[in-house]
Design a protein that fits this description.
heterodimer; A: mainly beta; six-stranded mixed beta sheet; three-stranded antiparallel beta sheet; 0% helix; globular; B: 121 residues; mainly beta; seven-stranded mixed beta sheet; four-stranded antiparallel beta sheet; 54% strand
Chain lengths: 109, 121
């Protein structure tokens, strides 16, 4: 049971917009801690996708965006592409320790 | 650009100690003020944070592993390592090392490719 809750799977057709949620509690996201997102393509290491809730590292397309409100955060992918099919993980802090969401598998139909 | 590469035994017996190293190319573990982390992923499952350390010597470990884990820098200063004692099948996972995105954050911005460790007799 992960401290941060994500839907196990989401799907969308190419070109569509999908949202992946990450729900925490008052001891992590709700306490004001940043949320970060990682993309893990099949068979590869995770890659930092969004940091500090809304920022993209260099090289990450602006189709990926993040937001945070209250005890939840969201990752939004617009203009969905086949190469976006991957697992996505949110991460935050709880009592000064890292916690991850259980991951969401994105399927591009 | 920094690159990281994990290495170590792929098979460890139950109750023994798991030891892995991470070789850093394009920098030294003790320079730049970066944080260095270990994260693992059991087969088919999600990510689990193991811990991180800072070149100053400070460490932060996952409370569920704290009694069994140590992260440290090797004398070469181009490697850092993780040891996990009294392993069981539950410790079977792909182990990743990572470096902080920038000098002031432990957030893992650069990852190794990962190495699979199986705990089995």
């Amino acid at each position: 049971q992960s401290v941060l809750t994500q839907p196990p799977s989401v799907s969308g057709a190419p070109g569509q917009r999908v949202t992946i949620s990450c729900t925490g509690s008052s001891s992590n996201i709700g306490a004001g801690y940043d949320v970060h997102w990682y993309q893990q393509l099949p068979g590869t290491a995770p890659k930092l996708l969004i940091y500090s809730s809304t920022n993209r590292p260099s090289g990450v397309p602006d189709r990926f965006s993040g937001s945070k409100s209250g005890t939840s955060a969201s990752l939004v992918i617009t203009g969905l592409q086949a190469e976006d099919e991957a697992d996505y993980y949110c991460q935050s802090y709880d009592s000064s320790h890292w916690v991850f969401g259980g991951g969401t598998k994105l399927t591009v139909l | 650009q920094v690159q990281l590469q994990e290495s170590g035994p792929g098979l460890v017996k139950p109750s023994e100690t798991l030891s892995l190293s991470c070789t850093v190319s394009g920098g030294s573990v003790r320079s730049g003020g970066y944080y260095w982390s270990w994260i693992r992923q059991p087969p088919g499952k999600g990510l689990e944070w193991i811990g991180y350390f800072h070149y100053s010597g400070s460490t932060n470990y996952n409370p569920s592993l704290k009694s069994r884990v140590t992260i440290s820098v090797d004398t070469s200063e181009r490697q850092f390592s993780v040891t996990l004692s009294s392993v069981s099948a539950a410790d079977t996972a792909v182990y990743y090392c990572a470096r902080g995105l920038g000098p002031t954050t432990p957030l893992p911005g650069y990852w190794g490719q990962g190495t699979l460790v199986t705990v089995s007799s």
